[in-house]
Amino acid sequence: NILGYAPIDIVDSAETREAILSYDGGTYKLYSGTDFYLMTKMISGGSLNNASFELQQDIDMSGITIEPIVNDEYEGTINGANHCVSNLTIRGIKIKVGNEEEVFCALFKFTNINTTIKNIRFDNLNLINENVGTATLYVGAFEAKNEASGNTARTFSKCVVNIGQFEDGNAASEVYFGGLVGQFNYKLEITDCHVI
């Protein structure tokens, strides 16, 4: 990582994201909170739909807030390599779906059927929502709403989640809350995962 803990306002541009993250042997290496933030931006932007990411050490996300990844086409792997992401804050986003408003608060809004998240711990994960109102709220650590159907299951393996803070944003309608997935509709393979 050539910038280390560079300020996010410096590195957050399409031209610099891929240049800043370390890349080796087909995998993007994550060393810092900035790296983790940029990973979410790169996946959301749709430029790396099949990319693999791997944590190289424990990462403290204090002071960094992310929004859910909204790219439903990502089919890669996020491998924590038995490291911990601590003090991560995810702020929910409101999206109009048909005639209804929905709020999504998780690492991913949806995951694709071939997405894999494994060997990772989230410690003191903060799931924050504002002004939800009458929108339906979907909240989980990894996936807000499990939507994509198909013959292949997305996979969550050897993951631990410790939720520190949850704010429902004064939700006045339905709230779907799960430790890993807010609402489950389709195939999902969960192996050796714990919410504590």
- Please tell me how large the radius of gyration is: 16 Å
Average pLDDT confidence is: 86
Specify the biggest β-sheet. Answer: 11 strands, mixed
Structural class: mainly beta
Q: Return the string of H and E elements.
A: HHEEHEEEEEEEEEEEEEEE
Strand content: 35-45%
How far is the first residue's CA from the last residue's CA? Answer: 32 Å
H/I helix tally: 3
The global form is globular
Write a structural description.
Helices cover 12% and strands 43% of the residues. It has 196 residues and is mainly β. The strands form 3 sheets. Strands 1, 2, 3, 4, 5, 6, 7, 10, 13, 16 and 17 form an 11-stranded mixed β-sheet that branches. Strand 1 and strand 2 form a beta hairpin. Helix 2 crosses helix 3 (33-45). Mean pLDDT is 86; it is low at 1-12.
Task: Please outline the helices and strands.
Blueprint: H1 8-11, H2 14-20, E1 22-24, E2 27-30, H3 33-45, E3 52-55, E4 59-60, E5 65-66, E6 77-86, E7 89-91, E8 93-97, E9 100-105, E10 116-128, E11 136-139, E12 143-145, E13 154-167, E14 175-177, E15 181-183, E16 188-191, E17 194-195
Helix pairs in contact: 2-3
